[in-house]
From TrEMBL, chains A, B, C, D:
GO terms for biological process: inositol biosynthetic process; phospholipid biosynthetic process. InterPro entries: Myo-inos-1-P_Synthase, Myo-inos-1-P_Synthase_GAPDH, NAD(P)-bd_dom_sf. Belongs to the myo-inositol 1-phosphate synthase family. This is Myo-inositol-1-phosphate synthase. GO terms for molecular function: inositol-3-phosphate synthase activity.
Length: 407, 407, 407, 407
């Protein structure tokens, strides 16, 4: 993590763009509805970490200073998507009506994303014979144009697109020069889509958050590039529900000197994310990032975990956890938790938080990973801290400190 | 809280007595079995907070330096009680066999407690016409004799006797001089049994912990007396299961900006505690102390709570909580928790922790309440902090600081 | 139970009135929305017992042959009530729109109910110095006028009004002549409101169902009167959720030779019913009827049960049950169930079922209690059968038999 | 199913042998402890279906008339196994002491089972070059010798050995003659171990129950052989816990006209069965038999199901089910169940029931599958009935009828 003061855009509170990769998905659409509702006083910012102190008085852009745009590969607009979410009972009809225009405005800022399948066939956006470098430059140009069109001090790119399967490592992922060379080669496709988007963020000088478990900017060569080019980045995989709960409970058991023997879990969900994770490849990324922290916190590796696609649940995620604990004199105790929530309603406010906080990091000239944002992630970059309370403390300290610096 | 350095007994790690009020109860018997098992290496100190760092290297008496005695009004010995707990499946047969002699030795140190009903009739221990002052002096003499018999540096009195109904306040509870006068009057009984025992601790110069919701030393006049006479005291009502869980979860919701709408709970338990709490008067003390922290933490006062006596559960406590939370854009989420544990197995290690920590406070010459021990209590004295993680931090700081002071 | 063949109205399938006592409540309004939606094909009759065989081909009035009216003491119309239920997310907006006119039509058939508080003060409907006989005649006249206005073959009165506290028994409740005399006396008020309504049903020659635990027609003198006057009646207290589940599970344990030691339960609910049951008097009726069957089925009397008003849950009822069971060789097993449902959505289809089935009973000339309808009730009249599977079998047999009789 | 009256052994209540395949496993050892405890009045027959009416007065052998023997491939005796089960807290110490001699006697009747791996290498029992026919004859001889040694009227073979992976079908499984030819061929091994044991039961003229999902006697050619040779057989896969619960609940929803959308489940268990089912091949048999009935009962095929090996749970099985149901007007309700039980304590009494009931079938000369015993099985042979209440009714009818026949 390197600091470099950047004069021109040091006011963290200036107008800031959020550029969603996956802008027409459930999380992005919900965040956009919410941003409009908060801005126009139709809803309080419940569920936003940055709405409370010490964040409320920190040098963060106001909700009203955030402007939305993004990439997607789907033709179903944000408005249509939000209508579906009204239909399933997640978004209240009343709020959709109130934010309809804002959704339309945001959707007008959505551009075609990088679709690896289309790209392979020289599809709609990517020309035959074009390289991943070409694609990334096209994406970066979209971001830069958005920034100029709205006279934004900065843009934060947030990846909320569909989870990709784990990436097969190649040497170029570990070596910046090799990577740049391969990107320029039209015959090669060394990066998954999420990483092409992350690279585009770097090219556009935008801050970046990886809300998914996809590779994104997490490849060593890209993180290095971000560091070199003054881009602050945070990841990975939003910690919104069951995993968050686990990182609240597990440290509490440890503080009591109680020993977790096993921690079993099952997640049921429908919606777009459920459908994606029904793919046994895609789900592997998710399961890995969900279990890593738990094992670190408990020392147990009996942590069976399942994610089931249950379409009739729609966007509701139901998670059951069974914790088996050894106590005094070998006695056993069990804790079961059942969590039931609209998944995107948990993610959306955190996504807005990340936009505000990365705007601060960008204004402060921080480059590379920001481990103090680990609170938001299942698999925090450059940090071994998973304890939610400890992460919350570190986040508050960082905001106070960094905020003081940019004022 | 006042500090006064006491030369003679400043080594916190010297031999220390634990004097249980309610020595033949489930918690005290389990703690005694456990202490012996830990001391002789038959069981690790799982569930003891002070077994981990920074406590492990602090100036606390070793488990092997703790000696058990106490008061009770029951004739059923600790050994018999432990046998019953083996019968119900709580204590393993193997450990009972291994600790049988230690239990017998501890029970030989048990003396007749103050029984208000017997006292009213000039019962076995209290002579006709004797005052509560007389009774307290008799109890104090038992403690002092114990201390001398075993050449103990200090004694920590821990109230683990049956929960009493809420006490009806009288002016003497608020005025030390008036209280002392009333105590000397054989025609009056201004203190509940738990407070007579607490007063005896003061007379004996012993540190004191209130593990029950009974009045104990919590009456203002007694706390003042403790402060005046250099007695460190901590309370009140051990935070061992469902309430602990609530003070872990509620602050975590708050940190997320999520708003708790209601938090309903039901506790099922049998055993001695279950039978006591089947009394609608006694249970009022418990319900009050369980809900106070929750309301402070969540701001909600929709917190219906029940405690049911379910004799067939024996010492197992099963608690179900239903938390209804408002999230982003008015969406709702629910968290349910089911906790199932042998209640005394949760309490016993914390009781040993308190003995060790109050020995340190005593060695350091701290007098009056020790708010930094709030981690252990549902209703922490002189503290508004209920957040378990915050309390754990404060406890660690206090131990480091105080430990440095006595070395 | 007496049978007497009634020529004029023997076609069970003729047009039938449902007269709701409590017509503007949540259950009645939901049933009315549902009836319209089913009739016009906007919703299938999911949750209606009578929609499946052998009922579907039995001599029951079709859904389209049911006409709604009723009494209430609230001025908030069925339409308004349904709008509130849309607001809370229980009724879909789309269905409200589709059934708006039907709701308006039904509400136009709602008349002022008997309000004991207003009556005591000679309030809006009951004149000063009027007797309960006068009141019942007024109510009966409303029902008769409704029947004539719509040329209905018969009317079924269904009590879905607010639960009343348990009634204090007086001799008149056990003696028909004494009751009739007291009713005529303007200075006396021997019946609770629910029983005045039940008496009105008798006067109007209408069949009757007690969906609440209130006294209603359950007083011996009234049941006798129903029998004498050829009125079929079924009760009491709709078995819709947790209690239904218990009467499914408890017999299944018994069939396995497993012994229930304790069965603890907690119900959380908001809405109108939640508010009513927050009254410690009213809740006593409900708790009694919920536990009676369970104790009969299990033989255990450790059945602690709570109902908590949790306003933020709205019409959602959440019920947690903890069943502790003894198995082979004294081993223990536990079953926990958590039930979460919109309470009125469970009740409404059963209310429509009862209307159809009591129309059949009426057509068949059955008078007095119909124990074969026990399937629908927590506290079945004139039956000791609580086993839901056994009740379902008895119901099917009865319908086949009675249906054959009226054809 | 054919009936043929067999004079010599028609008294169903005569002394009967239980021959366990897997005699040293958890289920068999627990059943043996229990049988002794019941016989000697140290424990009531809680959990035995046949201990209640109408079974109690049916023509079944008394518990005291049952004698235990069996096959196993493990050298760990039943007594040792029972001691382990005391250690884990499942069997009470007191009962082990009381039944020690009975266990030793039963274990003295245990002979070496057919071990396919050892057989492949001409291991301890099977000689090099021996056929599966030879092996089955050896096993049958063990059973016959047991029957003669104890002068038993009949023997019931019950397969409680480790679950095998699904068998790969070969033509011989469908054709008795072809099967018999292949069995005689020392170069072939067409049957899995469970089916070799089932064939041995046929050769020995013993009744047979398949308590596991393994192929056992379930192969068409073997069932045909059983029918031809007058052997009654029942299967398959004991319905003891979660699956039983599902077949209680699912029909109850259907009776209400409620529509199950999805039914998700997770099973956690340790012990021998947990370890076996950790094998992804073996677990496939189990998952299939668990889900078949559920899909038949609900019509839904969204029934994700998991079985996780959680060694620290020992013999405790914890199962969580989440049922998502559509009700009136498209409303949704959820039921969650958490079941926690010692798995073998559920299975053992049912195994004793099966021995008694198959003795009756044998005495009555019934041959082939007995579909009326479907109550006991996840995957009932020759029956499509999964509804537990309906199965219980059919079982009672069958017992009354068959009992009358043999008296
Ligand atoms: N609580 C939560 O909701 C939560 C928590 C952690 C992580 N996440 C992650 O957030 C992501 C979004 O979740 P969601 O529920 O909104 O999913 P979704 O399926 O509704 O939306 C994903 C969107 O990404 C788009 N997309 C796919 N490939 C793309 C590409 N190459 N370029 C641009 N857009 C592309 C899709 O068209 C779709 O609109 C998922 O990866 C999920 O795992 C969500
Ligand atoms: N997890 C927990 O177990 C837990 C948590 C918080 C608080 N507590 C409290 O700890 C206390 C002890 O619980 P337990 O399960 O051991 O109960 P218990 O009933 O087994 O033991 C109480 C003992 O106190 C004795 N006693 C009663 N009156 C006395 C008196 N006047 N003087 C001396 N002794 C007296 C009784 O004879 C009995 O031996 C209870 O008040 C309980 O509420 C327990
Ligand atoms: N699943 C279920 O919903 C369920 C199950 C069993 C029983 N019940 C019972 O059904 C009843 C109705 O439940 P709800 O949720 O509709 O309640 P609600 O409070 O929404 O409706 C009750 C209605 O009764 C009316 N009322 C009160 N006193 C009256 C009187 N004297 N005459 C005429 N009307 C009167 C009220 O004005 C109100 O409109 C309750 O008694 C409840 O206990 C409901
Ligand atoms: N509730 C229940 O416990 C339950 C319910 C349904 C089915 N079952 C089935 O019952 C069976 C037994 O369960 P358990 O818990 O006792 O398992 P276990 O592992 O404790 O016992 C299985 C026994 O079978 C023996 N065995 C293995 N292969 C053999 C062979 N070829 N011949 C003879 N013996 C052999 C093993 O040595 C072992 O002693 C399992 O298949 C299980 O799936 C159990
Ligand atoms: Na306090
Ligand atoms: Na009855």
């Amino acid at each position: 993590m390197h600091h470099a003061h950047d004069d021109s855009s040091s006011r963290a509170s200036a107008r800031t763009g959020i550029w969603f990769v996956g802008a027409r998905g459930s999380v992005a659409s919900t965040a956009t509805v919410g941003l409009a509702a908060i801005t126009h006083g139709q809803s309080p910012p419940t569920g936003c970490v940055t709405a409370r102190e010490p964040f409320a008085s920190a040098a963060l852009p106001a909700f009203a200073d955030l402007v939305v745009g993004g990439h997607d590969i789907s033709a179903v607009t944000m408005t249509k998507r939000a209508e579906c979410l009204v239909e399933t009972g997640m978004i209240p009809q009343r709020l959709l009506a109130a934010t309809h225009d804002a959704l339309e405005r945001a959707d007008a800022e959505v551009r075609s994303g990088y679709d690896p399948h289309a790209a392979a066939h020289g599809g709609p956006e990517e020309a035959h014979g074009s390289s991943q470098q070409d694609a990334a430059e096209r994406l970066a140009a979209d971001i830069t144009a958005f920034q100029e069109r709205h006279a934004l001090a900065r843009v934060v790119v947030i990846d909320v697109s569909s989870t990709e399967p784990p990436v097969v490592p190649v040497p170029e992922h570990y070596d910046t020069d090799a990577l740049l060379a391969a990107l320029a080669d039209p015959t090669r496709s060394v990066l998954p889509a999420s990483s092409v988007s992350a690279y585009a963020a770097i090219l556009a000088g935008a801050a970046y958050a990886a809300f998914t478990p996809s590779a994104g900017m997490g490849l060593p060569a890209l993180i290095q590039l971000a560091r070199d080019r003054g881009i602050p980045a945070a990841g990975q995989d939003g910690k919104t529900g069951e995993t968050w709960l686990r990182t609240v409970l597990a440290p509490a058991f440890a503080a009591r000197g109680l020993k977790v023997l096993s921690w079993a879990g099952t997640n049921l969900l429908g919606g777009g994310d459920g459908a994606t994770l029904a793919d046994p490849e895609a789900v592997r990324s998710k399961l890995a990032s969900k279990n890593r922290g738990l094992r670190a916190l408990t020392g147990s590796d009996t942590t069976p975990l399942h994610i089931d696609n249950v379409p009739d649940l729609g966007d509701i995620k139901v998670a059951w956890d069974h914790v088996h604990v050894e106590g005094f004199l070998g006695s056993r105790l069990t804790l079961q938790t059942t969590w039931s929530a609209h998944d995107s309603m948990l993610a959306a406010p955190l996504v807005l938080d990340l936009a505000r906080l990365l705007a601060l990091a960008h204004a402060a000239g921080i480059s590379g990973t920001v481990p103090e944002l680990g609170y938001f992630f299942k698999d925090p970059w450059d940090s071994d801290v998973h304890d939610a309370a400890e992460q919350a403390g570190a986040l508050e300290d960082w905001v106070r400190r960094t905020s003081a610096q940019v004022r």
